[in-house]
Amino acid sequence: MLNVTIQHPYIIFAAVVVITVIMGYFMVKVKIDPDAANLLPANKEALELAKQYGTGEEQAEYMMIAFESSNPLTLESLAALQDAVTRIEVLQEVKSVISPFNLITFQKDGKRLQIMPMSPGNRAPKNDEELEKFKDRLFKDPFAKKMVISEDGTVLNVVMS
Length: 161
Description:
Blueprint: H1 2-7, H2 9-28, H3 44-53, E1 63-68, H4 75-89, E2 97-98, E3 104-109, E4 112-117, H5 128-140, E5 155-160
Antiparallel strand pairs: 1-5, 2-5, 3-4
């Protein structure tokens, strides 16, 4: 096989180019369906499970609370926001809450990447040290900006579904 390759390099190169062009042509026609419901087998058991647990196509209703202040990042202001969020999230209609306190962030710890909430304990900071860590994480995280805090730092948002 090696001798044939060495003796006829142009033919081998042409064959590789032709195969690559053919594969490229068919690759463009490949379609990916990201809908998980279409991946389920079309049998009775799978359809019953999809009906029971849902397929992710349900429409959720969202509510957003915006807390605006010239300086909302004080211990007192954050405690008041936490109190309001706690009172609302116990309601039966509220399924999930994304707040500045429980938003997940990533932090480098040596060579490891840690996953943690913005605020220790998923709650409002209780002392100045926790407040400084909270502010640092909040302003450095690109997902937090415009989702749970405005760019200028004067508005905190809570998203509920």
